[in-house]
Design a protein that fits this description.
The protein has 330 residues and is α/β, with parallel strands linked by helices. 35% of the residues lie in helices and 14% in strands.
């Protein structure tokens, strides 16, 4: 069976595929015109973020059985087009949870303790900045979590259990049972109350038509002047022009951004000139350990399909009802 890699993946995953005698084809680059002729012979495809698997590419993928994402998002897969061809699409939901949670908490602490400012002051000989009492405690503060899935819930638990923080959350898609599981330590609120009452806001929602520009001028205007907002979900959820205005005018205290509307960030982006932000290059899940986990789990999904087993986290379960897949073992 031929497994196509539009981008290289970690050695642990390569070794896993090799042990099952898969033939591995790694594209020289992830450009669509490079991948197109290679996808014709592929039975499985392991996908990172460097290319979008579009309907045009899938039209040539007559032998393709499975697309396995190495992350949790499916932004770069035309799932509908894959479903039309009976191709199983999987993702690695939950694999990056702790890595992203750690990244978000690092941003919260770094911004609260003013670590970039303190570091710069010491390096420039301004040791007296210590008497200005610029850092803040997080203990006892309120964190508002926008999107209370795996990552949001993990962050809420840590903030509550470790720092004694109050946790409020907004997620209209939670079931009654899910709300009941955490009712003793998190309070579910409407969006306006979350923005108005939180000292820290952490965003964990997918980018959809409904969530695009969800954090706009109106939402930011509700926030406390000393509040901090963190986005490690998708860049388009936050209207960056509105965020820049709020930061420039000290309407809010700071922001931590791991994702952006356009990546890489343009060299003249006004965010790059602000001192009250921490910016990272969409790297929350890209720890050494997490990248290896994501690659090996994606490889295992491909191997499961090859072996006639149903892989975890199938995004388009309707294809499993087709004659092609009725014999899969759950």
């Amino acid at each position: 069976m031929n497994v196509l890699l539009p981008q290289a993946i970690e050695p642990e995953a390569i070794a896993l595929l090799g042990r099952e005698n898969c033939r591995i084809t790694t594209a020289p680059d992830p450009k669509p015109e490079t991948v197109l002729p290679l996808i014709r012979a592929a039975h499985g495809l392991i996908l990172r973020t460097g290319i979008a698997i579009t309907a045009d590419l899938l039209e040539a993928a007559d032998q393709l059985l499975v697309i396995a994402r190495t992350g949790g998002g499916l932004d770069n897969v035309d799932v509908a087009a894959a479903s039309e061809k009976g191709i199983i699409v999987t993702s690695n939901l939950g694999v990056n949870t702790i890595s992203v949670a750690e990244h978000v908490l690092s941003m919260i602490l770094a911004l609260s303790k003013r670590l970039p400012r303190m570091d710069q002051a010491v390096r420039s000989g301004n040791f007296g900045i210590r008497y200005r009492n610029l850092p803040r405690d997080v203990s006892g503060k309120t964190i508002g979590i926008l999107g209370f899935g795996r990552i949001g819930c993990q962050i809420g638990k840590i903030c509550h259990q470790t720092f004694g923080m109050r946790v409020v959350a907004y997620d209209p898609y939670l079931t009654v049972a899910q709300k009941e599981e955490c009712h003793n330590w998190v309070r579910m609120v409407e969006l306006e109350e979350l923005f108005a009452t939180s000292d820290f806001i952490s965003i964990h929602v997918p980018l959809t038509d409904r969530t695009r520009d969800l954090v706009d001028d109106a939402a930011l205007s509700l926030m406390k002047s000393d509040a901090i907002i963190i986005n490690a979900s998708r860049g388009g959820v936050v209207n960056e022009a509105a965020l820049v205005r709020a930061l420039q005018r000290d309407r809010i205290a700071g922001a931590g951004l791991d994702v952006f509307s356009q990546e890489p960030v343009a060299a003249d982006h006004p965010l790059l000139k602000l001192e009250n932000v921490i910016l990272t290059p969409h790297t929350a899940a890209l720890t050494r350990e997490c990248v290896a986990r994501m690659a090996t789990e994606a490889a295992q999904c491909v191997l499961d399909v090859f072996a006639g087993r149903e892989p975890p986290n199938v995004a388009n379960r309707q294809v499993l009802e087709s004659g092609r897949w009725k014999q899969l073992n759950a």
